[in-house]
């Protein structure tokens, strides 16, 4: 009888342990991307680029590779996102000495069904686009995304106020300071989400290369089963100067495997001067999906006013630049 009771308790303990293990889950995901880019209005061998984040090389190039390990428990969990390649170096500013390949690294606690606390480094909540190209429709990046923060290091609290309304509050190191706050200053962020539309706020003192104040709207609407319109607008001010702009992202799905989308963006600098530059950038992108592989052919044309940041095929200064890009992105 004692043996039977002992075996029964053993099996019950194993069952409870297995149930606890079932509540924990380790998942591995990530992406790899590469591209070919040639300039249509400038030579490929002069180091010309649009000046926005990432995808700034002509010829064949590697974008980035990242591996995301996510461990999810019943109440707590952790995420580690390791990245390599030029896009990863640009996203992390390649300034971290010890952890230079860390894109994201954070722990979280689901305090309740409606409240989550996150502590560590996470990618920014500002803007329509993100670092990993698999989550963007266009392969190249906008000026609005390139001008804002890429990541934040600090503490944030997410509140699900209802099924369709959310609130996020954050205190972090200043703009893109991913290790420590050398100045002893901190930044504050907030996001109010309602029915798929998001109003984002960010503030730091603007000292030591900080961003200052930024208000950002990100959202979109399904105008039909196959037509989506994404919207992004932002205004930034740092002691009287900064930037502002808006971008529209109309996207049409022509089949289950192919979509075409346009990004039209106006971006301008503001300040005391009356002739500060502005740019209108148009990007037409196709997106063909084959299992986990996405092929993106893209044509982009940027045209500046009050500035000539490019050169033409004759080597003369130019206010516009056009390029063709073919990108391949694999997600797992």
Automatic annotation (TrEMBL):
InterPro entries: BBP2. Keywords: Signal. The keyword Signal applies. Residues 1-18 form the signal peptide. The keyword Signal applies. This is Porin.
């Amino acid at each position: 009888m004692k043996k039977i009771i002992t075996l029964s308790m053993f099996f019950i303990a194993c069952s409870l342990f297995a149930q606890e293990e079932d509540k924990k889950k380790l998942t591995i995901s990530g992406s790899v991307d590469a591209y070919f880019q040639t300039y249509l209005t400038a030579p490929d061998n002069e180091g010309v680029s649009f000046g926005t984040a990432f995808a700034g090389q002509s010829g064949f190039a590697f974008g980035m590779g990242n591996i995301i390990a996510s461990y999810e428990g019943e109440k707590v969990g952790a995420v580690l996102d390791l990245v390599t390649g030029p896009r990863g170096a640009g996203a992390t500013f390649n300034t971290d000495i010890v952890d230079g390949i860390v894109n994201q690294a954070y722990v979280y606690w689901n305090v309740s069904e409606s409240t989550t606390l996150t502590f560590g480094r996470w990618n920014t909540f500002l803007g329509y686009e993100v670092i990993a190209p698999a989550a963007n429709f266009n392969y190249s990046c906008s000026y609005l995304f390139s001008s804002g923060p890429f990541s934040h290091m600090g503490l944030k609290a997410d509140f699900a106020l209802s099924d369709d309304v959310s609130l996020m509050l954050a205190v972090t190191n200043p703009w893109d300071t991913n290790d420590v706050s050398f100045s002893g200053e901190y930044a504050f962020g907030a996001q109010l989400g309602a029915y798929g539309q998001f109003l984002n706020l960010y503030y730091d003192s603007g000292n030591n290369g900080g961003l200052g104040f930024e208000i950002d709207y990100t959202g979109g609407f399904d105008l039909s089963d196959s037509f989506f319109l994404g919207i992004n607008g932002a205004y930034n001010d740092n002691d009287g100067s900064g930037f502002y702009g808006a971008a529209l992202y109309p996207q049409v799905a022509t089949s289950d495997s192919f979509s075409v989308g346009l990004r039209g963006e106006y971006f301008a600098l503001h300040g005391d001067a009356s002739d500060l530059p502005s740019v209108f950038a148009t990007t037409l992108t196709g997106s063909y999906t084959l299992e986990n592989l996405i092929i993106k052919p893209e044509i982009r044309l940027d045209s500046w006013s009050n500035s000539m940041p490019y050169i033409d095929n004759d080597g003369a200064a130019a206010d516009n630049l056009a390029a063709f890009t073919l990108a391949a992105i694999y997600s797992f």
